[in-house]
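[audit] Reproducing an earlier prediction to check determinism. Same input, same settings, fresh worker. If the tokens differ from the archived copy the diff job will pick it up downstream; this log only records the rerun itself.
[audit] input (363 residues):
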Amino acid sequence: MRYQDEFRDAELVRKLAARIQETAQHPWVIMEVCGGQTHSIMQHGIDQLLPETIELVHGPGCPVCVTPLELIDKALAIAALPNVVFCSFGDMLRVPGSSTDLLKLRSQGAQVKIVYSPLDAVRIAQENPHLQVVFFAIGFETTAPVNASAVLYAQKLGLQNFSLLVSQVTVPAAMHAILGSPHNRVQGFLAAGHVCTIMGYHQYHAISQKYHVPIVVTGFEPLDILQGIFLAAAQLERGSSLVENAYPRLVSEQGNIPAQKMIDAVFEPCDRNWRGIGMIPASGLKLREEYEFFNAENRFDVSSISTRESDICISGLILQGLRKPPQCAAYGTLCTPQHPLGATMVSSEGTCAAYYRYTSKEG
């Protein structure tokens, strides 16, 4: 099955949904980690095909959503400076900071540019040596290799005017945090296929065994997701806690070794704040000491900025799978895609945005 349509075949979808119905005889809570999977589930109505015994909850796998508020405010402070070109992926522009967002700053004259790769930002720095060019380096392990390559390329070019504002985070640490919480409800995981394409899934074996949960590496099309749910439910019914790969067309156990080496060359593990969740130990990546020159936080001295989350937004609970968007008092009223309170309503991978787009606002 090489083509996209084959992974959306309606008859195969119905047959696989029926197998899940036959298999899941007990109630189980399964979390899809990835925001892209969440949107696919809502867009294709996959949750409506499942038996009542299967509850899907949505994890913190949206990099825009988990970028901490204080880093958004640091981005805003840097972008507002004269002689700075602030480069970012487009879905970061409307993420609310404490008082504004990057899109509003751009409308007020700030040099905020949408780029499609950090290498675009390197090119801008090369062409504008009189300006400081900053790239907002957010994401999970999927984006880390190209962000690392941008640093290495800028170093090779001898650029003095390029830097990264880094908010790289890692999936396994988030899974540890969720499963280790006294409030955890998750009994099985659908692991993010694109992250595993880079990192493989060998590191998930220890998580599966420690917490006694099945973990199934899963793709993004309807049949991919239903296959992941089926395998997770089958394990839960028989009491297994193994790591399975339901995405073998792209994922191997060891992953992309050259990409991993590039990440390790430029970044090292660090503690990282997650928006709405808080500090997760060793959950982030920071620039190694030999590349500190490219650290925008130090270059622009914004380390003292601190912030406070909205008292109304419950995105932290949503990102941990403890609540769903319709359970938020602000959902669809005070918080909409046009006027978001939190990043989960803004991002193209945000859970609240998925619910708002694909269901009624009452859920």
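[audit] rerun output stored. Observation attached for the diff report: The mean pLDDT is 92.
[audit] end
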